């Protein structure tokens, strides 16, 4: 099958399948290795599924003349919320909106934006639009706003954290200031991080300010 040599589902395979649906079945016998959509689309097997998942669709004049064809690329519309976070900007925006989408994404949830197992000190200042994962600890004299805190994180005292995303199992050292940043590793030294992506703790130095940087492990393994 030509699909065996295609590497992208979105850019190659789906367009290939859609284009193939308008071709006619082959009239000559072909080698078994040269399969196409006519060899794998069994109309009888998929007729029920095609009808089931298109019952809410108003058929056009083109569909009225003949039964639904299982080779056609139909769409099933799910009533839930869906975002394709396939790049950093979309992932970032999704996290920023999660506090407002929480009730829709987790309907009838037994817990709210703060997981019941999270430990938030009474003297910690947290805004209403943050999400705190299970087992996470926010110590006293901290200020956390508009941030998503993953599971089992620890934010130590005197930390100011705003408009950021923390992955699971991240620890923030006392006295750090972090704004508009994505943190996927421990910040073990007091520092200021603004508009950064941090994936390597070794790139962070004591009492240093980082702005608009990507602090990741070096790709030079020589």
From TrEMBL:
GO terms for molecular function: guanyl-nucleotide exchange factor activity; translation initiation factor activity. GO terms for cellular component: cytosol; eukaryotic translation initiation factor 2B complex. SUPFAM superfamilies: Trimeric LpxA-like enzymes (SSF51161). The keyword RNA-binding does not apply. It comes from the Eukaryota. Component of the translation initiation factor 2B (eIF2B) complex which is a heterodecamer of two sets of five different subunits: alpha, beta, gamma, delta and epsilon. Subunits alpha, beta and delta comprise a regulatory subcomplex and subunits epsilon and gamma comprise a catalytic subcomplex. Within the complex, the hexameric regulatory complex resides at the center, with the two heterodimeric catalytic subcomplexes bound on opposite sides. This is Mannose-1-phosphate guanyltransferase C-terminal domain-containing protein.
């Amino acid at each position: 099958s030509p699909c065996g040599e295609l590497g992208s589902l979105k850019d190659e395979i789906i367009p290939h399948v859609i284009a193939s649906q308008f071709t006619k079945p082959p009239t000559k016998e072909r080698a078994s290795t040269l399969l196409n959509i006519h060899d794998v689309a069994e109309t009888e097997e998929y007729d029920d599924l095609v009808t089931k998942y298109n019952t809410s669709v108003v058929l056009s004049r083109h569909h009225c003349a003949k039964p639904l064809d299982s080779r056609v690329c139909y769409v099933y519309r799910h009533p839930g919320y869906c975002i394709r976070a396939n790049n950093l900007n979309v992932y970032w925006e999704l996290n920023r909106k999660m506090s407002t989408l929480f009730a829709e994404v987790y309907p009838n949830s037994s817990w709210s934006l703060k997981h019941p197992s999270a430990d938030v000190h009474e003297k910690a200042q947290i805004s209403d639009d943050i999400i705190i994962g299970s087992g996470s600890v926010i110590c006293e004299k901290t200020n956390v706003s508009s941030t998503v805190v993953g599971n089992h994180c620890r934010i130590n005292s005197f930390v100011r954290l705003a408009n950021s995303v923390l992955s699971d199992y991240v620890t923030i050292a006392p006295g750090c200031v972090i704004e508009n940043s994505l943190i996927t590793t421990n910040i073990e030294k007091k520092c200021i991080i603004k508009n950064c992506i941090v994936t390597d703790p070794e790139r962070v130095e004591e009492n240093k300010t980082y702005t608009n940087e990507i602090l990741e492990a070096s790709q030079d393994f020589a």
